[in-house]
């Protein structure tokens, strides 16, 4: 297995993935680009620093860490990450939005590197609990990571899964909330107030940490600090920015499911290329 990448190399890779993401969504004329961009740094850190045993030459290695994208509508961010990791050929990713493509608007197991079909919001954590519990029962060391949206927290099944994870002391389970504060209907606190997330999940018996999900060093340090032997499941609240990395999208609700025009795509790519150039020095 290759060594985990340091934070600066991860940030450069994330920017390259961000450029690819913008181009792919523009070409497909569809995608949840705002949430894609808010979670892209997290996915880059997971796949190139934290997840163990993830190997495109052996995608079903029994001891691999598991990842579930519960907020499955942001699958485009996962696709570009899987391409960078070697699971998807570029010519396959370029078929997104085309008739007959194996790539759809939510994760499916037809795609190499994807563990489960997901995107029916509220289901991902329950699946992750099952994976983590199976590891405990089989005396395996692999860990399970689940990335959820903050708008998704209105789904009651999440809290049933949270109680089960505490009951079975699943310290091999890490749930992450992409806390960008915006969902399709607007600000999360106007639609269904969530705060205090920390108090709620602490009451469920979880170990709770917070991180700046836009800042790669903080992401890496937070993941590295997890204690996988404390008999508690782990929740990370990732404070992020919807549309992160594209100035005219940041913090704007309409980009939850916005489609770029040609001029917007060129502007976004130019911004990202400027950061890539600086990070490459």
SSE inventory with pairings:
Layout: H1 7-28, H2 33-50, E1 66-69, H3 75-85, H4 90-93, H5 124-137, E2 144-149, H6 157-167, E3 173-179, E4 182-183, E5 186-187, H7 188-191, H8 197-203, E6 207-212, H9 216-224, E7 234-239, H10 262-279
Parallel strand pairs: 1-2, 2-3, 3-7, 6-7
Antiparallel strand pairs: 4-5
Percent range of helical residues: 40-55%
How much is the radius of gyration in Å?
18 Å
What is the distance, rounded to the nearest whole angstrom, between the alpha carbons of the first and last residues? Answer: 27 Å
Q: Report the uncertain regions.
A: none
Described by its quaternary structure, the protein is: single chain
Strand content: 5-15%
Number of strands: 7
Topology as a string of helices (H) and strands (E): HHEHHHEHEEEHHEHEH
> What's the total helix number?
10
Overall pLDDT metric: 94
Alpha-beta content class = alpha/beta
Largest sheet: 5 strands, parallel
- Give, in spatial order, the strands making up the sheet with the most strands: 1-2-3-7-6
| Overall body shape | globular
Describe the protein's architecture and organization.
The two termini are 27 Å apart. It contains ten helices and seven strands. It has helices at 7-28, 33-50, 75-85, 90-93, 124-137, 157-167, 188-191, 197-203, 216-224, 262-279, and strands at residues 66-69, 144-149, 173-179, 182-183, 186-187, 207-212, 234-239. The longest helix has 22 residues, at 7-28. The strands form two sheets. It has a five-stranded parallel β-sheet with strand order 1-2-3-7-6, with helices on both faces. Strands 4-5 form a two-stranded antiparallel ribbon. With 281 residues, the chain is of the alpha/beta class.
């Amino acid at each position: 297995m290759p060594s985990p990448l340091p934070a600066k190399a991860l940030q450069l890779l994330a920017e390259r993935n961000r450029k690819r993401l913008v181009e792919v969504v523009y070409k497909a004329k569809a995608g949840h680009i705002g949430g894609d961009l808010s979670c892209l740094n997290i996915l880059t850190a997971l796949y190139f620093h934290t997840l163990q045993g993830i190997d495109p030459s052996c995608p079903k290695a029994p001891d691999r860490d598991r990842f579930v994208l519960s907020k499955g509508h942001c699958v485009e961010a996962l696709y570009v990450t899987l391409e960078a990791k070697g699971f998807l050929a570029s010519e396959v990713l370029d078929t997104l939005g085309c008739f007959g493509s194996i790539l759809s608007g939510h994760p499916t197991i037809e795609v190499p590197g994807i563990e489960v079909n997901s995107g029916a919001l509220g289901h991902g954590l329950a699946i992750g609990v099952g994976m983590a519990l199976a590891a405990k029962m089989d005396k395996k060391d692999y860990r399970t990571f689940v990335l959820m949206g903050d708008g998704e927290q209105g789904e009651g099944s999440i809290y049933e899964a949270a109680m089960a994870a505490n009951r079975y002391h699943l310290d091999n389970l890490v749930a992450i909330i992409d806390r960008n504060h915006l969902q399709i209907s607007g600000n999360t606190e106007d639609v269904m107030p969530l705060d205090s997330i920390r108090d709620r999940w602490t009451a469920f018996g979880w170990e709770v940490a917070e991180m700046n999900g836009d800042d790669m060093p903080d992401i890496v340090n937070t993941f590295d600090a997890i204690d996988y032997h404390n008999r508690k499941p782990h929740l990370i609240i990732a404070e992020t920015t919807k549309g992160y990395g594209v100035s005219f999208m940041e913090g704007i609700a309409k980009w939850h499911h916005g489609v770029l025009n040609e001029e917007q795509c060129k502007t976004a790519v130019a911004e990202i290329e400027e950061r890539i150039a600086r990070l490459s020095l």
